[in-house]
Design brief:
This protein is mainly alpha-helical and about 325 residues long. The protein is built from eleven helices and six strands. The strands form three sheets. Strands 1-2 form a two-stranded antiparallel ribbon. Strands 3-4 form a two-stranded parallel sheet.
């Protein structure tokens, strides 16, 4: 799935932590994740603010259909004419009422957009109209699995999307302000190193979780929105998708692509281009846990974003195919 969160930026205190992982108590792994809460809170707060703003817009009352410039005389005359037509042509009036009860057919534009997304097996949607959300399908039902080529193609499109450039820059700025991973230093050089690390972390995880391992294990990297049930039920469903995914055969199975893919990505990034002070087993486990946590939040946002988008556009709920 597209990475919308980036890499965690906490740094180990080498004066108090033994680099030998065998001497580290189990509680240390949880303490490292707790150290990442400030950065985690900033990213989550941004997402929550965008959700709240969208909901506020969606709850605005509809504008009146009748123009406020019409005079009372014109309005009264129109009402009288309508009543006379109803008395003279009761059958025609009933037909018109029945037609109003029938939902309008989707426009040609909507049908084209829906058919293009379904035929390709992916989506053209964007979270908050910005971040790539190409691997999320809404009310898709039974769809054919993606080929290995399609998996790599859609992951590449999301990873190298122009919006990601801005997103990684935002996360790098937060990291620099917190002075996380001080081995990068400050100034333009430090910011450039942090930016490169964020971009590499996101791209590596995207490919392992969304293309490489799904092709090996023959699993479907797409998120299939539930769209049904209560808020709690839908939240539980989206969280469960971290551990359960759809295989190419259509059956549910353990999500090895997410769990192992994020672990491999955490190991590669930690022991290759991040500061040497961070190259420890505890920090690698901490980064792995943070990536899985961020991906979980992303799935929850993906589950409810279509509802928010439809409310903003004042569209009826989508029906399952």
């Amino acid at each position: 799935m597209p990475d919308t969160s980036g890499r965690s930026t906490a740094v180990n205190d080498q004066s108090s932590i033994n680099n030998d992982s065998l001497g580290v108590p189990p509680t240390y792994y949880w303490s490292q994740i707790i150290l990442k809460l400030p950065h985690f809170a900033v990213v989550c707060s941004s997402a929550l603010l965008l959700n709240c703003a969208s909901l506020c817009l969606a709850q605005n009352p509809l504008l009146a259909q009748t123009s406020s410039t019409d005079s009372p005389t014109q309005t009264l005359a129109a009402d009288q004419t309508a009543n006379q037509n109803a008395v003279q042509n009761p059958e025609k009036n009933n037909d018109s009422r029945n037609k109003k009860d029938i939902p309008d057919a989707p426009s040609a534009t909507a049908q084209a957009a829906n058919s293009s997304g379904t035929s390709s097996g992916t989506s053209k949607d964007r979270l908050f109209y910005a971040l790539p959300n190409f691997l999320t399908l809404e009310n898709a039902g039974e769809v054919p699995p993606l080929t290995a080529k399609q998996k790599f193609k859609v992951v590449a499109q999301g990873s190298f999307d122009p919006v990601q450039i801005v997103w990684y820059g935002f996360l790098s700025g937060i990291s620099q302000a917190e002075n996380s991973e001080p081995g990068y230093g400050q100034g333009a050089e430090g910011y450039g190193k942090r930016y490169g690390a964020y971009a590499a972390d996101g791209t590596i995880e995207n490919f392992f979780v969304g293309a490489i391992l799904p092709s090996i294990f023959r699993q479907d990297p797409r998120y299939f929105q539930s769209g049904q049930g209560t808020f709690r039920q839908r939240t539980e469903y989206s969280v469960s998708r971290i551990f359960v995914t759809r295989a190419d055969s259509g059956k549910n199975e353990f999500n090895a692509s997410e769990i192992f893919g994020s672990a491999i990505a955490a190991g590669i990034s930690t022991y290759s281009y991040h500061p040497k002070s961070d190259r420890t087993v505890p920090n690698t486990f901490s980064v792995w846990g943070s990536q899985v946590g961020y991906d979980t939040i992303t799935l929850v946002v993906k589950e409810f974003w279509p509802d928010i988008r439809r409310k903003i556009r004042k569209q009826p709920p989508a029906q399952a195919h």
